[in-house]
Amino acid sequence: MIPTPHDLDPCPHGCGELVLWTITEHGRRMAVDAEPHELGNQAVFRTGPGGWRSRSLDGADAPRLAPWEHRYKPHVATCTAPRPAQPAIPGLGGGRPRPRRRAPARRPIWKAR
After folding, report:
1. Whole-model pTM?
2. N or C: which terminal CB in the chain sees fewer CB atoms within 10 Å?
């Protein structure tokens, strides 16, 4: 089943494309492209009014595509919006790394005479 315009939302990253939000097998939200794609690796099906589920078709143990499912591509694979740079992690110094200090020279335990 192809989603209706009511099911689609604009890309959250700002590329301007419409995406379909699904719930994965693990209960996470995942955006897929609005149109089915024959090379997609996600099996998507409708669970009810406004509900969409997806599961991966990758892996040796993944079941085949069922008759009620369609192949879709994850939107993250086709999104053209630039990704924001990861902010600096607080407490890790964020700048140039400090030069490494050399270990102090070891003193011999005994002197050879």
Report:
1. 0.70
2. C
